[in-house]
Amino acid sequence: MAKKKKAAYRRRNQNRFSMFLVTLVVLMIVVVVAVKSIELNAKSAANQKEIEAWEEKIAEEELRKEEIEEESIYMKTKQWAKEMANRMGFVLDDEILIEEE
User: Fold this and answer.
1) pTM of the full structure
2) How far apart are the C-alpha atoms of 20 and 92, rounded to whole Å?
3) Residue 87 Cα distances to 2, 32, 51, 101, angstroms
């Protein structure tokens, strides 16, 4: 009988040790997953800020594009041509240039 009790005691201790190891491994996995989750959340927040900055730049460039298109349309008008001619000192065919002496 003593042998049976010793064998049962050993099995019970081995089972406790095995359960301890399994619990330890599961706990380590939980800790690693929690740490990685925190890192990913921080990286996600940083990426979101970067996305917002790029969206702001895109909006600014869209406004700039519209201004350039408006200016391009204006540059095709006769009024723009007259303004440039006056700046450069040119006159139109039906105009007379009077200079002071």
Assistant:
1) 0.52
2) 99
3) 117, 72, 45, 20
CB atoms within 10 A of CB 29: 10
pLDDT band at 86 (very low <50, low <70, confident <90, very high): confident
Cα-Cα end-to-end distance for the chain: 137
pLDDT score for 17: 87
Q: What radius of gyration do the chain's Cα atoms show?
A: 41
HEC-encoded secondary structure of the chain:
CHHHHHHHHHHHHHHHHHHHHHHHHHHHHHHHHHHHHHHHHHHHHHHHHHHHHHHHHHHHHHHHHHHHHHHHHHHCCHHHHHHHHHHHCCCCCCCCCCCCC
